[in-house]
Amino acid sequence: MEDRLLQLAEVEGLISCKKTKIYQLIQVGKFPAPIMVGAGRARRWSHRQVQDWIADQIKQQAAQG
């Protein structure tokens, strides 16, 4: 499966969180860190990693009942 890179706005839409919450989750190791592209000027997220994170969240919710 081919991966693609997502911009912050796309990530916000996928996980229903805003920038501040996303960066808080990254800081505590609970969300994938972005990949720096364009000489470090732009941050992008792996679509595959974000989808894996979403799947993990669903599994955790199901386990909690």
Task: Please give the structural blueprint.
Layout: E1 5-6, H1 8-15, H2 19-27, E2 35-37, E3 42-46, H3 47-64
Antiparallel strand pairs: 1-3, 2-3
Structure report:
By secondary structure, the chain is α+β, with helices and mostly antiparallel strands. Helix content is 54%, strand content 15%. The chain is built from 3 helices and 3 strands; from the N terminus they run βααββα. The protein has helices spanning 8-15, 19-27, 47-64, and strands at residues 5-6, 35-37, 42-46. A 3-stranded antiparallel β-sheet has the order 1-3-2. The chain is globular, with a radius of gyration of 12 Å. The mean pLDDT is 95.
What's the rounded overall pLDDT mean? 95
- What is the alpha-carbon Rg in Å? 12 Å
Order of adjacent strands in the largest pleated sheet: 1-3-2
Order of helices and strands: EHHEEH
How large a portion of the residues is in β-strands, by DSSP E?
Answer: 15-25%
Low-confidence stretches: none
**Major sheet summary line:** 3 strands, antiparallel
Number of helices: 3
